[in-house]
Specification:
By secondary structure, the chain is of the alpha/beta class. It is built from 14 helices and 8 strands. The protein folds into 2 domains: 7-136, Response regulator (Rossmann fold), CATH 3.40.50.2300; 144-320, no CATH class. The protein has helices at residues 20-30, 40-50, 76-86, 106-111, 123-135, 138-145, 147-150, 161-171, 178-194, 208-215, 233-239, 253-271, 273-278, 286-309, and strands at residues 7-12, 32-37, 56-59, 95-100, 116-118, 220-221, 242-245, 317-320. The longest helix has 24 residues, at 286-309.
Length: 324
């Protein structure tokens, strides 16, 4: 059974082809995907093009600058790799683990303190340290703790552009712009329209406010004669058809309350942007933002469930009689 790949690594070792079993063990037993190179320059070229996706470097002490050269036994190539890694601008820096056949000189140990492992002798220790380091990263813990909400931010559900948007909010849960919450909610409404769960604009739902009301259990209408007047019974009757979610797709009351709260909170904030800029603590504090974020995650998990439940082309809503 292959362990799910979590960690992506570049391995520098001039003899890696004679130890391909190591690559297999890393992937199948430890969830580490290895990209091997026997020399510095090809490996650094690959790293410069893919460093945003790389988590760690596994580094032999001695290897060559180019594939067709004799290996360098001074350790200078390993230090060259380390210096190149140090220059990469990455939110979570790449960590280096030295994996070598024999202990090296004191100078080499000074350049790689605490991260030197002897092949075969310290393999399990190295894998243990790699996973401990990886699991201590803030971004990894966020992805684990909020996996169910982040999984909704794909093109199958509300759009992959919302993944970075939600992830960035999660990194600073008490200090973000409420407009980011509003954008995610609007994307969710659009996704629900695309999935035929709420009526399309042709059915008369033109504004997010109406989408919000409908999702929370309200009605949508087949025409929209005057967008500026309040909803009244006489107006509803004049408009003709009404539409409401079918019973099996009806939003549970707690989720409907969360959706209405988030919509109103994020929309009202957008009307008070200037006030927040002048008096940020008088609009909504960190406590309110953390609460809103957790409510948003709850809403997203429900939206995923709802989209998964509705796998057919049928509409999730139906025509009803005029509201009494």
């Amino acid at each position: 059974m292959v362990v799910k790949t979590l960690i992506k690594a570049v391995w520098f070792d001039d003899e890696w082809k004679s130890d391909e079993d190591f690559i297999d063990v890393c992937l199948k037993k430890h969830g580490i995907q290895i990209e091997p190179f026997q020399s510095t320059n090809p490996g650094l070229k690959y790293l410069s093009e893919n460093y945003l996706d790389i988590d760690i470097i596994i580094l032999d002490a001695w290897f060559t600058e180019e594939d067709d050269q004799k290996y360098d036994d001074t350790g200078s190539q390993a230090i060259k790799v380390r210096n190149a890694v140090d220059k990469l601008e990455k939110e979570y820096p790449i960590e280096i683990f030295v994996y070598t056949a024999t202990p090296r000189k004191k100078l080499f140990n000074t350049n790689f303190p605490g991260r030197i492992y002897i092949k075969t002798r310290n393999d399990e220790e190295m894998f243990h340290d790699i996973h401990n380091w990886y699991n201590s990263r803030e971004d990894i813990n966020i992805k684990k703790d909020f996996k169910s909400a982040l999984n909704v931010c794909t093109d199958k559900y509300i759009g992959k552009k919302n993944y970075d948007r939600l992830f960035n909010i999660l990194k600073r849960p008490d200090d973000y712009s409420m407009s980011e919450i509003r954008k995610i909610i609007y994307s969710s409404f659009n996704a629900l329209q695309d999935k035929n769960i709420i009526p399309s604009e042709q059915m008369g739902v033109y504004k997010e406010a109406e989408k919000s009301r409908f999702f929370a259990g309200g009605y949508a209408f087949s025409s929209w004669k005057d967008k500026n007047k309040p909803w009244t019974k006489s107006k509803e009757e004049a408009m003709g058809k009404n539409y409401k979610l079918k019973e099996k797709y009806m939003t549970p009351v707690p989720i409907a309350d969360i959706e209405k709260y988030l919509y109103n909170l994020s929309t009202n904030w957008s009307h008070d942007q200037k006030k927040e800029e002048d008096n940020p603590d008088q609009i909504i504090t960190g406590f309110g933002k953390v609460g809103a974020l957790h409510n948003l995650c709850e809403l997203l998990v429900y939206i995923k469930w709802l989209i998964d439940k509705k796998l057919t082309d049928e509409t999730a809503w139906e025509e009803t009689k005029v509201i009494s």
